[in-house]
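Re: the 295-residue chain
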Amino acid sequence: MTEKLLLRVATPRWLWVPATLALILLAGPLIALTILAPWGSLPAILGDPEVLTSLRLSLGTAAISTIISLLLGLPLAVLLHRLSGVARAVLYGFLVIPLVLSPVVSGLALLYFWGRRGLLGTLLENLGVQVGFSPVAVVLVQVFVALPFFVIAALGSFEGVDPDLELAGANAGANATQILRYITLPLALPGILGGTLLAFARALGEYGATITFAGSVEGRTRTLPLQIELALNSNQPDQALGIALMLIAMYIMVVVISAWALRTVVSRSVVSRGTGVPAQPLLASRSTASAPGRG
């Protein structure tokens, strides 16, 4: 009711003109893809062995890179949330730079770090480990571009956690790990979940840095975006359109799942806060540990 009232009395009508133009710029290309797509031959296109191989590689590497981003990004987000001053600014700078780098520059940076003659790649080469032109290279590229998305989303959620609740847990005798486990992480769960899905979607669509660093080798590094490029260069626009539609469908699924999961988590969190459920495991563990004559 309030939103409708504000839309009528507090929103200038002229805003609809630039907003409509913005929607045309955003939605127009997507609508063109769906209109001009070869729907009749789509099953045959998506059933092509090369496309299926690229699909399996894309899903597998994106899943692995998302797990790595979660395991490494969560501690980084927590530390960024706690730090301040120069240390936070430096860490945040390293986090943001991959977001604004050109994909080619990102690929070159990865090449000169992980490549055969790179800073770390030379050492790995001497040990008999070759990263380039392998699925490992694809995962490294995806982590490089997806990790910042996860950390920023999780960090925003951590910033929304009430510090008084964490201090209350400390005053109740909980240690740092218990505060993180029972208070901070549950309250920041929506952002963590959203960041995980965002990282997966970003990893799934990576192209520029992958072809620069990992190359385009069928079955090893040729993910779906690289398969689209190959189809266009091979004068197979129908295959490129079909794969593009498949990627768009995957992104829509990620958005739908993300929205549903976030609503579920938030609603459960609200109910739990009202009943005091999240505090029970912590309080129970502390009371058990402090009670005399127990254990």
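Confidence is low (pLDDT under 50) at residues 275-295.
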